[in-house]
Model the fold of this input.
Amino acid sequence: MTDIILHHYAGSPFAEKVRIALGIKQAAWKSVDIPNVMPKPDLMPLSGGYRKTPVLQVGADIYCDTQLIMMEIEKRLPASPLLPKGKEGEVRGLAMWIDRNIFWSAVGVVMGAIGDKLPDAFKKDRSEFSGRSFDADKLRASIPMTRDQTYAQLTLAETMLADGRAYLLGGEPTLADCALYNPVWFIKERLGSTASPLDRLPRIVAWSERMKAFGAGSRQDITAAEALEIAKAAKPAPTGVDANDPSGLKASQKISVTPDDTGRVPVSGELAGLTADRISIARSDPRVGDVVVHFPRAGFIIQTL
Ligand SMILES: N[C@@H](CCC(=O)N[C@@H](CS)C(=O)NCC(=O)O)C(=O)O
Done:
């Protein structure tokens, strides 16, 4: 089987969502360390402009956004399933709520506490990334609000654990646990497990220790140049366009796909694949040849060119 390659950096909480899934699955995977700010010259030939972290590569197929990355990992590594049969929708819906809500209030808590200590290059990059000026004073002043929101939302998860279950949906971890681990890990890593609001959430803290114990599987570091060579030597897997898709898009049509929230850089190419929850673009680059870049549908804007 073709190797799983994760392009990421150690401090990325969305990458931690994926690393913990690889730990639960005890997967063997390859790791490429990428910069935590732009430019990312060795990622762009693969992703076509998508700049967020992490990105998953399997040969000449590039998967963007953890929504899709987790689905792809689940398909390729079915052991220790993260999408329990009959509960796929519930688990993915929970993950979406966590990614799009809890994550941002947790970022507010962390950046409010440490924002003034971060390098100017990081602040400038994140201002461009989010479209809003990274203002450490404003972030610090917002701590009561972001902490309150984080507390309120994490309390929902704390309540789920109140009956003594080990994980959010029962005795085994699911995608929802990996998603929740992202913001909880971020607060713990940067501020410690006694930081507010974790100090009021003992079940979440105990749950996060159980999650941490899964580790990150068996990781082998490779260079960005090696990853580019792997893409160049591979061919993208065949995909198909759903002729009944409500968008009316047709195979080979020229399109762009752009995240609707942060890092809004369009990726352009020819439509290679379309399903209800995935859109795939064929493109090429002199350093990697032909690749297909895959995105989730939810949270991504498609435009015809
Ligand atoms: N919706 C994306 C969010 C990814 C995201 O925002 N990642 C952060 C790092 S945790 C990021 O890209 N920051 C800017 C960067 O790394 O360049 C996903 O699920 O993958």
Summary: The beta strands are 5-8, 28-33, 55-58, 61-64, 218-221, 254-259, 267-275, 278-285, 289-295, 300-304. The radius of gyration is 19 Å. The mean pLDDT is 97. The pocket of glutathione is lined by residues 12-14, 36, 51-53, 65-67, 99, 129, 262-263 (CB under 6 Å).
